[in-house]
Amino acid sequence: METNRKRARLIYNPTSGQEIIKKNIAEVLDVLEDVGYETSAFQTTPEPFSAQTEAERAAKAGFELIIAAGGDGTINEVVNGVANLENRPKLAFIPTGTTNDYARALKIPMGDPVAAARIIEKNQTIKMDIGRAYGEKYFINIAAAGTLTELTYSVPSEVKSRLGYLAYVAKGAEMLPKIKQRPVRIEHDHGVFEGQVSLIFVGLTNSIAGFEQLAPDAKLDDGNFTLILVKTAKVFDMLSLIIQAMNGGQHVTDSNVEYLKTSKLTLEVLDPDNPFMLNLDGEYGGDTPVTLEVLKNHLEFFVNMDEISNDALSEEGGN
User: Is 283 a catalytic residue?
Assistant: First the structure.
């Protein structure tokens, strides 16, 4: 009889995407068993922080691997469940959501839970950077602020499920004329920025809101955020930046953009009555002022290393 098999816990959101994981759960469990993990499953509930609470419980119970199946929100919760623990399990991701920014960055197959689970068979992992905000909230892809980023909160989840990314595009087009600048002070590794900005992106990967060129030189493991400040609020300027971003990341040299690398930053709005709402991995995280910091190589993720560009990794790379 086999003893000492490693244990894995699959935490899945049954309502994510088109409920695709429900149809594939048995096959996904078979793949994990074949790889050598004794695997059990947990279905998230509508209770707040359901995935986060279960991830923390499983990690403390000594599970060696936690697999998050769902959208970016589910993976964010799982990360928040384990990130502050001393002994952290390895993590894997089965993307079944609408935008799946993190899956794009890690080159995990989307819309096919069995193919995503098979990535674990390849046994390729990277120790990934994550971000921390307010000293206690963790994010894996982006912290963002500005009128356009607030649209995430106003697209109903059933519309997101039905229309996917088109829901954001439609809402974004509607909100473009409403964008306004706010005076900010941002302290970062290289100094201080003071001035008017309309949008702030603090990215950990190159895939932000479905754009894979917003931070074209982002590395997954170098201990740095990519800070992007958009200084204009004019509709034509914004459209120009979007076109440049889609056209090979040319926006990074535009005069309306500040673009730099930093391991930490503090953001405050100089008009205290009009703070920015901070968007962490697509969900509301809190208001400014806020300090953000990178935790370098903090979590070990199973990834599709064969598909990840060498440019996305620092010299050390993955395992």
Answer: yes
